[in-house]
Design a protein that fits this description.
The chain has 203 residues and is α+β, with helices and mostly antiparallel strands. It has one domain. Helices cover 27% and strands 37% of the residues. It contains 5 helices and 13 strands. It has an 8-stranded antiparallel β-barrel with strand order 1-3-4-5-6-9-10-12. A two-stranded parallel ribbon has the order 2-13. Strand 7 and strand 8 form a beta hairpin. The chain is globular and about 50 Å long. The relative contact order is 0.18.
């Protein structure tokens, strides 16, 4: 019975485009197959990768990210996502933001006030922060934000590693419609839940 179950499982994986140890879900694999290195990824294809990946890790170094995204909901119009990063040497923060898909190419900020969604954790032991301490931290974040202009982002395909279950993109930032290459950043999309969970934010 166990042998039959294993054979059936492997057969079903083959039918759905999955493999037992590595690779991507069928929809994400189809995107990877269509992409070429250095080419723009249409935002509909980016949306597929948002749905498939467990975590997007920006400026990855070993098992650390400068910041990361977890996409919570992705529709034809845009996406909701949880951003996490080290706020300073003491606190990590996570918050929820929203973006809209524009011109078949970009995801754009909306000016959504995400500060009320902020949760914080002490970097030394991971314990949650609440009460007055969290309120004071939110006031600090509000003061830092100021009056930021909403940016838009597009993505160039850099490559994929089926064994590691990662895809690499180059995110380009547009402010007022102008692209500054100094703001380009590499992002590694992790499709393996275990490796995604192990990622931390460096300061």
């Amino acid at each position: 019975m166990q042998r039959f179950a294993a054979t059936l499982t492997i057969g079903l994986m083959g039918l759905t485009g999955l493999t037992p140890a590595f690779g991507f879900d069928a929809d994400s694999q189809a995107v990877v197959d269509r992409m070429k290195t250095g080419k723009l990824v249409p935002i509909a294809e980016v949306a597929t990768l948002m749905r498939g990946a467990e975590r997007w890790c920006y400026r990855q170094t070993d098992a650390g990210c400068s910041w990361s995204d977890i996409y919570l909901e992705v529709t034809a119009e845009g996406a909701s996502y949880e951003i996490g990063n080290a706020w300073n040497a003491v606190y990590d923060i996570v918050f929820t933001d929203h973006g809209t898909f524009e011109e078949g190419r970009y995801i754009c900020e909306t000016g959504y006030d995400w500060v009320p969604t902020v949760r914080a954790f002490r970097r030394d032991d991971g314990s949650p922060v609440g009460g007055r301490e969290l309120h004071a931290l939110k006031q600090e974040i509000i003061g830092y934000r100021g009056t930021e202009e909403n940016d838009c982002f597009d993505y160039l395909f850099e490559g994929a590693d089926a064994a590691a279950r990662t895809v690499t993109l180059l995110q380009r930032q547009f402010t007022g419609g102008v692209h500054d290459p100094a703001n380009d950043v590499a992002v590694t999309l992790h499709f393996d839940a275990e490796s995604a969970e192990a990622l931390a934010w460096y300061w």
